[in-house]
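Good day; I would like, with your permission, to put a structural problem before you. A protein sequence and the structure tokens that stand for its backbone fold form the material at issue. The record follows directly beneath this note:
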Amino acid sequence: MKTQILQLVEFDIVPASVNYPGIGRYSHDGGQIKYSPKLTKTGENYYNSKKELPDGFRMSTAAEELAIQLYEETSGRDPRKAEAFDDFFARNEDEWHAWQWTETGLRVPKGYEADKREKDTQGRIFYPRIVLIGDEEVGEVLVPEGNGKVVPYSSVPEEVWDTVFGIPRVTSDKKSDMKLDNHTTHFYFNTNPSKDSRSGEYDVAVARRGGWLRDGRGGCLGVCADGGRWDVGSVGGFRPVQGSLPEIEKRLAKIDPKELKNTLLEEIKEDYNKLPPKEFQQKYSL
């Protein structure tokens, strides 16, 4: 049964950009949406939840959810207490602790091992992924480690968040960052997903939820890229939204020949240590 939407909030999506070294720069000019401050409960997986969208509405994206969150944060308010996220913490009549599906997903690129990783100059680990909006591939990103690590506070949100696609750029488990006052959000990421029976690819959904701290001092937001779109979510739901998605523009990264050479040498070295001699010779036509 499709839910009737009783209240909508007008919201401006501000222009956003993000740069991934070796991949390129993504940006959009923003726009305006109308969203429901209350989530719609379906108790279904992502695909079946979409069937319950009211006419004229779509499911929100991870980027739109992040935009709502960062609007609260940059206005000096705690987003964990925002009305838009009440359902995560059962601040509703049904005492429903919501698991929120979004239109965003992450896919293992073709030809890649799921656990293929890269390290930055600080030794932080990232995983190459394709970003999905619905079924469409819209970009390539580097996803940081999850496992409940936090997105550390920054006065410049773009330093730790990808505001174009709505996922973290940086995560941390440092003691100082794990303090409740120094973060609002935890990140969960399955680096070895199962194959999606509909897409035939190795996909995860980018969902959102809330979580309670063990000592009872309130809760935190969670960005959860650790489950498949077919996973049954008995507490699943979505946020109905009206408005067009912003058009995302990509500018290819400038290639540094020296950096490219070093990257290729590292890949050859890794293959030499990992592959059987015959397989290594075949791969590099030796």
